[in-house]
Description:
- The chain is α+β, with helices and mostly antiparallel strands.
- It has one domain: CATH 3.30.1320.10.
- 23% of the residues lie in helices and 41% in strands.
- It has two helices and five strands.
- The longest helix is centred in the last third of the chain and has 10 residues, at 68-77.
Amino acid sequence: MAVKIRLRRMGQKHAPFYRVIVADERSPRDGRFIDEIGTYDPTKEPMAFRVDEEAAKKWLANGAQPTETVARLFKQAGIQK
């Protein structure tokens, strides 16, 4: 089972809000997930990104692969190099 750290879209049309989740890569974008570790709101100025660093590092150490967007957010937050 391959595990991914990715964004789950929430919010209304034209007002996206995301939750950072850990899920099996085979599950749909907004489907079942294993753990919720943070939030991301690109509509705020500056963008709002909050994540549980301990949980993120634990999942990365256990082999979870972040998507490109999540990897970029983690890099900005200083969680991942």
